[in-house]
Amino acid sequence: MSNTTGKIGWIGIGRMGYAMAYRLAKAGADLTVWNRTRAKAEPLVAAGAKIAHQLSDLAACDTVFVMVSTYDDVHQVIAGAQGLLSGPQAPKLLVECSSISLEGSAALRALLAARGVQMLAAPVSGNAKVIKAGKLSFVCSGPQSAFDAALPALKLIAPAASYVGQGELARIVKICHNVFLGVVIQSLAEITVLANKAGVPRKAFLDFINQSVMARPSRATRVRRWSTSISR
Predict the structure, then answer these.
(1) For 8, 19, 151, 179, which has the most beta carbons within 10 A of its beta carbon?
(2) Active site includes 135?
(3) Helices in the chain by DSSP H: which ranges?
């Protein structure tokens, strides 16, 4: 597996990061992980991962993934005094999956470029359960060569990885995705209330929706999850 993905570093073993890194480890990737709370990363050893003692240990990797909370966290783990770039080495590629702003993403890209590191912005659609089910999706932007280099590793984590162009365009797509998600959820709630006020039991209405063309495979999982919540 290392012949196709090289040495991979992973920063951030929260709910999302753990599930994503676990899929890499189980697939046989040469994976080394770091987390602020080491105990959260230790279960990954049984799946085949190694644990880094410090962030700069990951600088020798070909590709480093980052999945943490905020831009401040991203900046600290990469450019902080004890961060990824605190030593003389630097990885070839950094795949940044956290939910950060366009401005933060652009600043990070410039910071990495100064050290000769390519960056792929790669936010995701899904949660930990979606990852475990093998249905996560990436949207990616940055140099085409960065996407091509990262794709074998991305495919070990998720079946879908869409390349949308240069710079921070993936962040724009993620924002559009979240807006669309909110609109669909609001619409489902409102039409369910409308049907319910007319006398249709919520469960009956949502059972119909889940068996209609509205719940075709591309939407079914989300519709069922929302409808289960609404029918309670």
Answers:
(1) 8
(2) no
(3) 2-5, 15-26, 38-41, 71-79, 102-113, 128-132, 144-157, 169-197, 202-210, 217-231
